[in-house]
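Structure first, sequence second, as always.
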């Protein structure tokens, strides 16, 4: 039995706006589930409906096999962790962690045992006498989580808890959070608009757009087999490039015409495209699957499986104009222009390229993604 389940859940706000359409999902015991999507896609609305802070317009919320729609927030046994951690500044760490038990007038000894147990789990036993003002961001996060999990909630709900932090701290806290959840094994639903955060945290990720679920999958599958053009463009930085292509069926394989470029598709991709029958497709290539030189010249050959095989097929290149170069450290981004549109390639930092140059860029066709131009679904 799923810990929590949503069945055809919809949310229509009073002003008539439908923020969530027909959303169905099962969340398993102990799972770390991420809800990700651009701002305004309905993530907070969903989380608030689960928490009981917002009515469910139609559909069902199941909690351990019972309908939860009409339960008061306090009866749902869910804990929410907020962005600012909502700690009491004048109370010690001990009292902050104990808070939800002490307001329920639990036995002092039991509270003491639980506070110590929780603090030990979170690795903050030595901080129990401090006040929130004397803690680092990571320590505050642990205290807030301690306060949330001490009553052993059915699930932990987190709405963009790291979004107030600077980039460096965010990366650090994200790593901590993943390790903590792994240790606590508390069922967790975590909302973020940041795909990098989603990809590093979750074992399962739900990608949303405009109130609709686009795909639910592991990070690896979202990256390697995005269900549609939206997911493909949303997951990965910089975003996947999309070239509009005309598909021409040949005796063997398929030819993709991108302007005057003739890119040959073979193997499974060609077979799938033939079976699908689309004439107009989006050819999706991630920036890291584009190289400046042919594979035998560079070290790019070993970077990804299939890279070599993909490149050796003739004609898998585009003649482009390099307009900008952005150094990232070990790699650099080449911004290039093709038929009036800008795209991005990610290459090793030592690659010799200059802005203003006309260059031939090679595509790793073994890592290509094809989407139907009409439906935007993966082919
Ligand atoms: N109380 C409300 N009344 C009407 N529309 C709302 C209300 N709250 C949120 N919305 C709208 O619902 C959509 C989803 O909002 P929200 O769930 O907060 O998105 P997210 O958390 O993904 O950024 C947005 O378009 C938002 O403007
Ligand atoms: Mg939100």
């Amino acid at each position: 039995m799923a810990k929590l389940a949503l069945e055809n859940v919809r949310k229509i706000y009073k002003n008539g706006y439908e923020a969530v359409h027909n959303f169905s999902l099962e969340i398993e015991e102990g799972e770390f589930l991420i809800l990700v999507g651009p701002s305004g896609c309905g993530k907070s609305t969903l989380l608030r409906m689960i928490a009981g802070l917002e009515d469910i317009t139609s559909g069902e919320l199941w909690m351990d096999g019972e309908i939860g729609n009409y339960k008061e927030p306090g009866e749902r046994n869910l804990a929410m962790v907020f962005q600012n951690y909502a700690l009491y500044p004048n109370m010690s760490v001990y009292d902050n962690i104990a808070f939800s038990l002490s307001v329920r007038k639990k036995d002092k000894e039991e509270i003491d045992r639980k506070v110590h147990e929780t603090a030990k789990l979170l690795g903050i036993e030595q901080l129990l006498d401090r006040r929130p003002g004397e803690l680092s961001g990571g320590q505050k996060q642990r205290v807030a989580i301690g306060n949330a999990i001490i009553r052993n909630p059915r699930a932990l709900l987190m709405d963009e808890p790291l979004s107030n932090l600077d980039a460096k701290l965010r990366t650090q806290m994200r790593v901590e959070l993943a390790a903590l959840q792994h240790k606590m094994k508390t069922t967790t639903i975590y909302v973020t608009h940041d795909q990098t955060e989603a990809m590093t945290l979750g074992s399962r990720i739900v990608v949303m757009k405009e109130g609709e679920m686009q795909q639910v999958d592991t990070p690896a599958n979202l990256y390697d087999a995005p269900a549609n053009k939206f997911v493909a463009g949303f997951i990965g930085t910089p975003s996947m490039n999309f070239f509009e292509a005309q598909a021409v069926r040949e005796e063997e394989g398929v030819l993709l015409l991108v302007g005057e470029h003739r890119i040959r598709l073979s193997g499974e991709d060609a077979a799938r495209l033939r079976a699908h029958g689309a004439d107009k497709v989006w050819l999706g290539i991630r920036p890291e699957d584009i190289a400046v030189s042919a594979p035998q010249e560079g070290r790019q050959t070993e970077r990804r499986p299939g890279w070599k095989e993909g490149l050796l097929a003739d004609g898998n290149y585009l003649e482009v104009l390099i307009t900008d170069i952005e150094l990232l450290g070990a790699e650099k981004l080449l911004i290039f222009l093709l038929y009036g549109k800008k795209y991005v390639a990610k290459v090793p930092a030592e690659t010799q390229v200059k802005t203003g140059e006309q260059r031939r860029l090679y595509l790793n066709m073994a890592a290509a993604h094809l989407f139907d131009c009409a439906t935007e679904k993966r082919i």
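Margin note: The chain has a mean pLDDT of 90.
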